[in-house]
């Protein structure tokens, strides 16, 4: 006869007393795969504490990182895309817009706001990849144009944070026209000698790279960001050759002269403030 006797089988905790871990409490680094506590990750500017991988973040997080005390005035918040081509792929474009807006809480793939960075006035337009891949449609181009107009009127520097898969196919030529529109507006900013800083984040591709993302007085990028026009797979299939190691990373782009600096996100605010003071003087 065994000396051990089990009185109760299984877990005795009642269902009412069980507690589930809250959603969003943990993240996993896409690079090193380690678990990251959300609070610690936010304090570290959404950079992995173990491998320094820069996680993708949106306009809400960038505004929090850059603006003093997260205080800013958002402008043109209610611009929304139309459907000039009555476009339908797997679903109508209008349905896709409505679903994405409901899911993300965003009106389109960009937000624009005015505030201060270390006491320096600045106008920031920031793209959101979660809204249809950060694609550049008519609203993106219009918000950038209006942001530049705001900078011209109030004589404040302009910072563009790019994060995009390229032009929005649902708007076809209307999307492609934004490349010329934003570039022309930036030329006016240059003539007025108002600084324009372009920050390229992961990923910055397509028509965005071919227009306003590469036209900064200073072009900077985050470490490890994918920067290019066509994707690596498309290029490899076209030229029928293997691509160099690290092709289209921000480090590769810097080495080949298309960037001025790579800046860690944790140092981004101070670096941009230094650039603004330098250009102002």
Automatic annotation (TrEMBL):
A zinc finger (C4-type) spans 29-51. The keyword Metal-binding applies. Pfam families: Carboxyl_trans (PF01039), Zn_ribbon_ACC (PF17848). Keywords: ATP-binding, Cytoplasm, Fatty acid biosynthesis, Fatty acid metabolism, Ligase, Lipid biosynthesis, Lipid metabolism, Metal-binding, Nucleotide-binding, Transferase, Zinc, Zinc-finger. InterPro entries: AcCoA_carboxyl_beta (IPR034733), Acetyl_CoA_COase_Trfase_b_su (IPR000438), ClpP/crotonase-like_dom_sf (IPR029045), COA_CT_N (IPR011762), Znf-ACC (IPR041010). Pathway: Lipid metabolism; malonyl-CoA biosynthesis; malonyl-CoA from acetyl-CoA: step 1/1. GO terms for molecular function: acetyl-CoA carboxylase activity. It comes from the Bacteria. It catalyses: N(6)-carboxybiotinyl-L-lysyl-[protein] + acetyl-CoA = N(6)-biotinyl-L-lysyl-[protein] + malonyl-CoA. It is found in: Cytoplasm. The keyword Nucleotide-binding applies. Its cofactor is Zn(2+). Binds 1 zinc ion per subunit. Gene3D superfamilies: 2-enoyl-CoA Hydratase, Chain A, domain 1 (3.90.226.10). Its EC number is 2.1.3.15. Signal peptide: none annotated. Residues 1-23 are annotated as: Disordered. Coiled coil: none annotated. Zn(2+) binds at residues 29, 32, 48, 51. Residues 25-281 form the CoA carboxyltransferase N-terminal domain. Acetyl-CoA carboxylase is a heterohexamer composed of biotin carboxyl carrier protein (AccB), biotin carboxylase (AccC) and two subunits each of ACCase subunit alpha (AccA) and ACCase subunit beta (AccD). NCBIfam families: accD. Belongs to the AccD/PCCB family. Component of the acetyl coenzyme A carboxylase (ACC) complex. Biotin carboxylase (BC) catalyzes the carboxylation of biotin on its carrier protein (BCCP) and then the CO(2) group is transferred by the transcarboxylase to acetyl-CoA to form malonyl-CoA. This is Acetyl-coenzyme A carboxylase carboxyl transferase subunit beta. The lineage of its organism: Bacteria, Pseudomonadati, Bacteroidota, Sphingobacteriia, Sphingobacteriales.
